[in-house]
Amino acid sequence: MPTRKGFTLVELLVVIAIVGILIGLLLPAVQAARESARRTQCVNNLKQMGIAFQNYHDAMRRLPPGYLAAGPYVDGETDTTPGWGWAAFLLPNMEQNAVSQSANFSLPVQHPANARAVQTWVAPYLCPSDIVPDTPYALPNASGSTVALAAPASYAACTGSDAFEVFAATGDGLFYRNSGTRFAEILDGTTFTILAGDRAFGISQGIWAGAMNNAAVVRGKYNTCQPVVAGTYLQASGLTLAHAHLNNAAFDGNDGAGLDDFSSMHPAGSNFVFADGSVHFIQTIAADGPNGYTSEGLIFQRLGTRGDGLTVPGDFLK
User: Fold this and answer.
1) DSSP H or E stretch at residue 206
2) What is the distance of C-alpha 149 from the center of its chain?
3) What contacts 30, CB < 8 A, 6 or more positions away?
4) For position 183, what pLDDT does the model report?
5) pLDDT single digits (tens) 113-152
6) Residue 37 exposure: Cα atoms within 13 Å on the Cβ side
7) How far apart are CA 201 and CA 287, in angstroms?
8) CA 300 to CA 247: how far, in whole Å?
9) What are phi and psi for residue 84, nearest 5 degrees?
10) pLDDT digits (tens, 9 = 90+) for 190-234
11) Integer Cα distance of 103 and 82 in angstroms
């Protein structure tokens, strides 16, 4: 009888096991390559913002406001009208003229006449590593009721150090309520002062349009910051602003879920654009130390301020 050639069951199982091992080794490399590409695109987004900030300053002799408010300060939640934020004012310099022209800046952000503009996805304001909804986001108030629909954003401008809350009337950084900072006021040097950085929608749900009056920032689906406190939210001004305190907060002693901090879906840190237009990756600063701020956290806070007079170690910025 002729012999039959083929695999035995044992040989087949060995081949399957080897293929499985090879796939297991290959997948992390593929995922790492994809994340590297996404991080590069995020850097490019921030570089584009850096150029836009420079061009805006050249034209207006100042940086755009963190957000624009017409009335007196009360709480950064119920007093933000009209509310247009820094990213909205940058639209023409970001080659987003169509979006800018569809907005009526004399009306509040949430006015129905601005729905088309506010609900428009602006690609440079979205980090490709971030996880955002496919449809306009139902922006809630503190009670969970919808204020308006808006397109998400993956970046926030810096109000300064932890000495100032993002909902305060002012800040020691470059952006806050009705700010109009000039480069001449950056006493620490543009090389060492943050303009804006990653603030992932998947962690803190913000928008690009600005501080929509009575709206709130709530936890994103991927926010793992402890402790988890029901009903935690951040005031409307936090929709477009963050401060340099923690970066990818894992524990927030103020029970704020890290909503007012910078964050990203990149591994181990976040990207930031500085006032000189450079972009740097800053490692995760997940929590304060048992006796207060960590040394890394203190350096990060220095980078968030415009004129504290403190130096930054040369090897901190990558």
Assistant:
1) strand 206-207
2) 19
3) none
4) 97
5) 999 999 999 999 999 999 999 999 999 999 999 999 999 9
6) 6
7) 20
8) 9
9) -55, 135
10) 999 999 999 999 999 999 999 999 999 999 999 999 999 999 999
11) 12
Distance CA 258, CA 227 (A): 10
| 113 conformational bin, left if phi > 0, alpha if psi -120 to 50, beta if neither | alpha
CA distance 249 to 201: 14
How far apart CA 306 and CA 314 sit, in angstroms, is: 18
DSSP readout, 240-263? TEEEEEEES-SB-TTSSTTTTEEB
Token output for 210: 């600005």
Beta strands 241-247 and 206-207: pairing type? unpaired
* Short-list 158, 257, 255, 244, CA closest to 202: 257
**DSSP per-residue codes, 290-315:** TTB--HHHHHHHHHH-SS------TT
Nearest to 155 by CA among 191, 128, 182: 128
Question: Beta strands of 37-179 (E only): which ranges?
Answer: 67-69, 82-85, 137-140, 146-150, 152-153, 155-158
Kind of pairing between the strands at 279-283 and 269-274: antiparallel
The Cα–Cα gap between 131 and 263 comes to: 12
Mean pLDDT of the chain: 93
Identity of the amino acid at 206:
G
Measured from the Cβ of residue 34, the count of other Cβ atoms closer than 10 Å reads 12
39: helix, strand or coil: helix
**296: its two tokens:** 């890394």
Owner of token pair 């923690």 = 246
